[in-house]
Amino acid sequence: CYRNSIRGEHEGELGRVYQAGGDAMRRPAEVWPPCTFIWEEMISRDWRYSEWMVKTGFDWDTGNEVIMGSQPITVPIAVALATAFGTSVKLWLNLQRQWDKRGDVSP
Predict the structure, then answer these.
(1) Predicted TM-score of the model (pTM)
(2) Best exposed site among 33, 48, 77, 88 by fewest CB in 10 Å?
(3) pLDDT of the residue at 29
């Protein structure tokens, strides 16, 4: 998983308007893998990996795959993340959906 902070080096770039060929265009928003948001949430709560595992109820293999980004966010995983972080299931499913379709964006 990309552990770059979503508030780090790219801050301020999302949705910036720029001039190209005389027409104002909006830059497409940068898309981040869901695991980046998991890391950010863990850091903001000062959770250790072992605490996160207990709160989500993941076994070692599943937790490792989710947090490293090799396991896509499915409905059961989204439910566990939503419960652990106090967010919605829809949030995690939408993050995965956006990540999955990132290659579909035309210039």
Answers:
(1) 0.72
(2) 48
(3) 72
Residue 33 neighbours by CB under 8 Å, 6+ apart: 1, 2, 69, 99
Cα 13 versus chain centre, distance:
17
Closest by CA to 76, choosing from 96, 101, 100, is 96
| Inter-residue long-range contacts of 79-88, CB under 8 Å, 24+ positions, other chains counted | 80/56, 81/38, 81/56, 83/55, 83/56, 84/52, 84/55, 84/56, 85/41, 85/45
Chain CA centroid to CA 41, Å: 10
pLDDT means per 10 residues in the chain (107 residues)? 49 43 61 93 94 95 94 97 97 95 62
Cβ atoms within 10 Å of 66's Cβ, excluding its own: 24
d(CA 14, CA 18) in angstroms, rounded, equals 11
Give the gyration radius of the chain's Cα atoms: 16
Whether residue 47 contacts residue 55, with contact meaning beta carbons closer than 8 Å, is answered with yes
